[in-house]
Write a structure and sequence with these properties.
Number of strands: 4
CATH topology of one domain: Endonuclease, Chain A
Strand order of the largest sheet: 1-2-3-4
Structural class: alpha+beta
CATH architecture of one domain: 3-Layer(aba) Sandwich
Radius of gyration: 18 Å
Bound molecules: zinc ion
Distance between the termini: 32 Å
Strand content: 5-15%
């Protein structure tokens, strides 16, 4: 595997995906039949991560956590970047990024989805590595961790990471704490 960020297989997958997605995500209630619902919901809620990102943005504002920007021009265009503390936060859709806790492979187009998810995971690792090499800390929050009772715990990771990073910034670049 080369370390390049070449994306021709990915863009091919995306094209294939956009051709396939309409029937899978058509927002018709008729599709929400027992059995198909959870798989369908997983695909929809993970699509583009918009709703999950919005949940996090709202929570940050509610908690008066400031100093972040979305989709800064860094490797992987992190969902949230705290530039001063050099902290990047990714909010991963459980379906698209293959959540270790709740990912279940779809029962159709098995190979297609497997390749897609593995490709995303590889890219995630490359992006994290590139960011860390540039001195950023990377925090990943899964979509499912922002749901229900897990949310407060997931959110506490942000001020705690910010605290650590602020101390590091204050101590200077040679500190590794
Ligand atoms: Zn999950």
């Amino acid at each position: 595997m080369s370390g390049s960020m070449s994306c021709s297989p990915a863009s091919h997958a995306t094209m294939t995906l956009s051709r396939r997605m309409p029937s899978a995500v058509r927002p018709s209630r008729d599709l929400f039949k027992p059995g198909g619902r959870s798989e369908l919901m997983a695909r929809i809620s993970g699509k583009g991560n918009k709703s999950t990102e919005l949940v996090l943005a709202t929570e940050l504002m509610k908690r008066k956590i400031t100093g972040w920007r979305r989709h800064v021009d860094l490797p992987g265009r992190p969902d949230f970047t705290f530039q001063r503390e050099k902290l990047c936060i990714f909010v991963h859709g459980c379906f698209w990024h293959g959540c270790p806790r709740c990912y279940r492979a779809p029962s159709t187009n098995v190979l297609f989805w497997k390749k897609k998810v593995i490709g995303n995971q590889r890219r995630d690792r490359r992006v994290s590595k590139a960011l860390r090499r540039s001195g950023y800390m990377v925090v990943t929050i899964w979509e499912c961790q922002l749901r229900g009772a897990s949310r407060p715990r997931a959110l506490r990771r942000i001020p705690s990471a910010l605290g650590r990073r602020s101390r590091m910034v204050a101590l200077g670049p040679n500190s590794s704490r």
